[in-house]
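Per reviewer request, we include the raw input and output of the structure prediction for the construct analysed in the revised manuscript.
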Amino acid sequence: MIATEPRINERIRIPEVRLVGPAGEQVGIVRIEDALRLAREAELDLVEVAPMARPPVAKLMDYGKFKYENAQKARESRRNQTNTVIKEMKLRPKIDAHDYETKKGHVVRFLKEGDKVKITIMFRGREQSRPELGYNLLQRLATDVEEFGFIESSPKQDGRNMLMVLGPHKNRSALKAEHGGSAKANGSDVDLLDDEREKPVVRQKDALAGLDPDQI
């Protein structure tokens, strides 16, 4: 549907309107000639705000100021919008200590920059029969970075992988407000499916949901 400008002043060609004053007060049903006269006397515009009503509703206002303020609000809203950036970090269930510390450092950096992080544990061969290895590793990582983020999507099995999403305590909008500028983004962006992106926060005690109890 294409948005159209409301009819104003002499473009309103109907016999009568339900008139609303500049402060929102109800004037009542008046002839269009009287409504236009009141608008001229108040140096305001007569704007049709509800054309489908019977009779249509018109309001006295400064239409130019009204349009300007709406445009300002729209620009401010767009300025405050921040695209969700999701980073990804992949780990093996039997990752060595050095690699773990390196990748944990990347996760901390992403969270501090206000980004979400998708953690993927990749199982190979017989590792697939030990999902608790991946779960324990994810829980360890979540605990190690809890100062900077929280579990937004609990560990869940996805084929040969196990996934978890960490969310930052402060998103990019909050960081931008604090520092007066945009947060710097590093690393590659990774898109998630909508259902993963919109998962509610789940307590860690429910994190085993979806795993085979016999394998834990």
